[in-house]
Amino acid sequence: MRIVVQSTGIDVVPAIIAELRTLKPNWLYEAWPNSIGASYAIVWKPPKELFERNPQLKGAINYGAGVDAILSMDSVPSGIPIIRLEDAGMAQQMAEYALYGVIHHHRHMQVYAAQQRERVWMQHEDRTNLQRPVVGVMGLGEMGGHVAKTIAAFGYDVRGWSKSKRAIDGVKSFAGSDLLNEFLSGTNVLVCMLPLTDETRGVINAQTLAALPRGSFLVNAGRGAHMIEADVLAALNSGQLAGALLDVFATEPLPDDNPLWSHPNVIVTPHIAATTPIRDACAQIVDKIERMERGEPVSGIVDRAVGY
Ligand code: NDP
Ligand code: OXD
Predict the structure, then answer these.
(1) Pair (159, 65) in one structural domain
(2) Distance (Å, rounded) from C-alpha 297 to C-alpha 308?
(3) What does the pLDDT read at residue 127?
């Protein structure tokens, strides 16, 4: 079996090849652009030439959960299936990230951090009515489903919004655009775990933010283009949003002059909510390739028409 591995940005290719070699020492690996004649490609934003120079490819495995980048490249010929990573060690990290955001807001950590800078000793806990925020998770797939379940297990009231109705223990399910407003109106911490598609682009906008109760908190670890950044800033400045934990941005790295960097109620992280663990990812990739070679069904095949 010949595998070509390609990536852009952080160079994970040597580490991926080293891990695959330990799992499948008899397979042949090549780092793009050295390759010709591969049966499978492991890719992140692959160029067209990769497919032109490997015409016998049986599958392109997207080295990540989100497929918006690979689909926007439009480089994978229609006859080659795109297979994405599913969880592969990322869902637990996502749950940690989102839970951190929920607790940061619920336990007034932003307020206490500001107070510390001013040496102010003042308590903000409500001792009579220990009401916890309702957490609303947009997207209940591999990431959002695990996030919702984990936060519910922590005792929070959790609701989720997805395209089709989902049954997750302890999570109230809202499905479809008709129920979006109802979902938002009872949400105090909005967590975005959606894939970026034509339908979800800009879903966090002035209208949807206005549907949240005043003083809500936003966690976005989906994609930057889910937010209309100017609308998020306006909501933060007006107090409609009390704060935000943001991992993804329309332009990454976030430009120096972006006002989100210095907003007092915003935490910016550099797209690290869930990084792809090489071991889990490679184990899953080998499993998927072996299934395809045996002619068995394989999960994670991207539906290009719907965009995820
Ligand atoms: P999945 O495909 O497993 O889940 C997608 C979920 O979104 C599904 O529940 C789906 O609904 C729902 N959804 C899709 N379109 C709509 C819509 N129009 N309206 C309502 N719900 C919709 O994806 P993953 O959970 O694996 O990943 C989600 C995203 O997380 C990725 O696409 C990526 O952008 C992001 N991500 C970010 C990372 C980071 O470090 N910041 C790391 C990894 C992923 P249904 O269940 O009905 O199909
Ligand atoms: C992914 C990501 O989609 O890291 O896997 O954002």
Answers:
(1) no
(2) 18
(3) 83
87 Cα nearest atom in ligand 1: 26
Answer whether 142 contacts ligand 1 (Cβ < 6 A). Answer: yes
| Average pLDDT of the chain, as a whole number | 97
* DSSP letter assigned to residue 144: H
Helix (H), strand (E) counts: the chain: 10, 12
Supply the residue whose CA is at minimum distance from atom 3 of ligand 2. 66
223 is catalytic: yes
Give the bridge partners for 301, in sequence order. 83
Please indicate, yes or no, whether residues 100 and 217 belong to a single structural domain of this protein: yes
In a domain, 256, yes or no: yes
The predicted structure's pLDDT at residue 19: 98
Asked about 146 being catalytic, the answer comes back as no
Q: How confident is the model at residue 36 (pLDDT cuts 50, 70, 90)?
A: confident
Residue 308 lies in a domain: no
pLDDT value of residue 71: 98
DSSP state at residue 225: G
**Percent of the chain's residues with pLDDT above 90:** 96
167 and 221 within one domain: yes
| CATH number for position 55 | 3.40.50.720
In short, whether 274's Cβ falls inside 6 Å of ligand 1 is yes
- Residue 9 token pair: 């940005």
Looking at the CA of residue 66, tell me the nearest atom of ligand 2: 3
Q: How far is the CA of 272 from the centre of ligand 2 (A)?
A: 9
pLDDT at residue number 129: 75
